[in-house]
Design brief:
- The chain has five helices and five strands, in the order E-E-H-E-E-E-H-H-H-H.
- With 154 residues, the chain is an alpha+beta fold.
- It folds into two domains: 74 residues, Beta-grasp domain (Ubiquitin-like (UB roll), Roll); 67 residues, DNA polymerase, domain 1, CATH 1.10.150.
- It has a five-stranded mixed β-sheet, sandwiched between helices.
- Strand 3 and strand 4 form a beta hairpin.
- The longest helix is centred in the last third of the chain and has 14 residues.
- The relative contact order is 0.16.
- The chain binds FE2/S2 (inorganic) cluster (2 copies).
- One FE2/S2 (inorganic) cluster binds next to loops.
């Protein structure tokens, strides 16, 4: 059966089975390679995308549960002219990545946080990113980047 997904503002017809994880469809069918496969068990956050502005673990979400929602991935975060989103720019400025595997999920979780809480405290950032793991230990730089993005947007 064909499902229709709205990803980064574009509608796509996809042919994966209803219970296929959304991450598989994004990467395998739609070539959205921002979200990463880490644990496959909703434990690391590498696969985080936004579903109607809320962060979700796309590795465990059946694609059928994402139809009708606005799905946002890292791939669609920059402007059409290539200008980076404020959170992306702040990650660059703070050098908030080492291997970069967690970065997409961290950024999407941060975008969701700042939409809800435009001027978060350090503690609020840490809480919001608590479920996103960074095996490189870049957490402190990541938190600084999110705080920098919040400042830049006000
Ligand atoms: S790959 Fe989805 S939470 Fe780890
Ligand atoms: S920068 Fe390597 S996992 Fe976070």
């Amino acid at each position: 059966m064909t499902l229709v997904l709205n990803v980064d503002g574009v509608r796509h017809a996809v042919t994966s089975a209803d219970d296929t994880p959304l991450l598989w469809v994004l990467r395998g069918e739609l070539d959205k390679n921002g979200p990463k496969y880490g644990c496959g068990a909703a434990q690391c956050g590498a696969c985080t995308v936004l579903l109607d502005d809320a962060p979700v673990r796309s590795c465990v979400l059946p694609v059928s549960a994402a139809t009708g929602a606005a799905i946002r991935t890292l791939d669609g975060l920059a402007d059409a002219d290539g200008a980076l989103h404020a959170v992306q720019s702040a990650f660059v400025a703070e050098q908030a990545a080492q291997c970069g595997y967690c970065t997409s999920g961290m950024i999407m979780s941060a975008v969701a946080l700042l939409a809800e809480t435009p001027r978060p405290t350090d503690a609020q950032v840490r809480t919001a990113l608590d479920g996103n793991l960074c095996r490189c230990g870049a957490h402190n730089r990541i938190v600084r980047a999110v705080l920098r993005a919040a400042e830049a947007r006000t």
